[in-house]
Amino acid sequence: MVAATCGLIFGYDIGISGGVTSMDGFLLKFFPSVYQQQKKDAVATNEYCKFNSDMLTLFTSSLYLAAMVSSFFASTITRVFGRKWSMFSGGVAFLAGAALNGVAETLQMLISGRILLGIGVGFANQSAPLYLSEMAPARLRGMLNIGFQLMITTGILVANIINYWTAQIEGDWGWRLSLVLAGVPGAIVAAGSLALPDTPSSLIERGREEEAKAMLRKVRGTDEVEEEFQDLVIASIDSKTMRRRWMNIVQQRYWPQLTVAVVIPFFQQVTGINAIMFYAPVLFKILGLGKQAALMSSVITGIVNMAANIVSIVSVDKVGRRALFLEGGLQMFISQIVVGFLIGIKFGMIGAETELSRGYATLVVFFICLYVSAFAWSWGPLGWLVPSEIFPLEIRSSGLSITVSVNMFCTFFIAQVFMNMLCHMKFSIFFFFAAWVLIMTTFIVIFLPETKNVPIEEMIFVWKNHWFWGEFIPDEALHVQNRTPARASPYLSIHASP
Asked: What is the value of pTM for the model shown?
């Protein structure tokens, strides 16, 4: 639970950004042209374009560019000093960024604070899923790892509630309070990480084998850990013989894991989820719900997001990763198509309609919630879980850094261009994201093997048994850690991909 709280800082920022950018006091101080634009009547300004500003979206997206860069530095700290110190660094950086944002008087101070927040997110997102996957037993790895995503959704919900409250405060105090309260999850992460023990894999990697065996006994609740311990030791020996980790990760034998580590976070972002969550209050405001109604709708989607995440926690180690990916993809596809039609019917291509009836607005919010819930039990948590469990130890921290970097770059890109896309594509932007959902669901059907209940150190057999990826893995890779296929035969038979 303590390690999973790293998700709070990511979630709080996702939730707080959109609410703050819909507050009049914030816009007046930093983006007066946007304030004036969104106050014009619908005849003078296309409803879809009222919040279209490159600098406004840079406020949101700059954090994720900083997170992308910092995740590569986090990889070295994670490997050399341990997972907990990377989490600690993330918490401290996030705390500093929150303080700077809370007292910001200029746009430069505001963006500088966002960059510090991004450094915190980059470090925490690189180390926390890795920590959770290494600590968890194979049979519970999905449930425990998804605790990270549960904290993300909790952070989003808390931020939405805070925004709803602070928006009613006159002047600058409302938005300043929203931004400075980001220091609370930052402090929780920084303080909590100091109390965490290192993972057995990390201890072995740093030559502390007796401590690692003791820790393995503690977290497994049994003294019968010799076989797992030897797997970790052998994996560590292989890891230490590897030089130029960033060069070796592109070797053909790692192509299956590398492909998934890049494609999964890319697909996670082109679902359009972060565009919805970042700009939910703004989007609902554009739909004519009014400021307070828009913020309340964001609170509702936040509650749905967190509640649906619990479905994934309960089911991921039972029904498996693939089933959740596929069901979630189908539900997101249908929901986005319906939302696109509902908005298109009412607003058309010029956004002439400025008010929605209560019933119509409720219908739009319902299908957006249906979309959010599907993401929350599929691509949301699994986008972090699957990459964290598929890499061998020798390239694990580097591989997860790639996942975080791709995720953050795509998040940055979507956040930066979403308002511009909405202005030009109008309601068809939902059809654009729906098309990507169809593509990524097809990818899961064809290329992703099932990984539930497989020990991390024996994941190589899952990839070798796959109809497509098996061709890239040489037979000698199966014996690198003195294992034989027979020893892992349950995983070869149970987890074969169709």
From this structure: 0.74
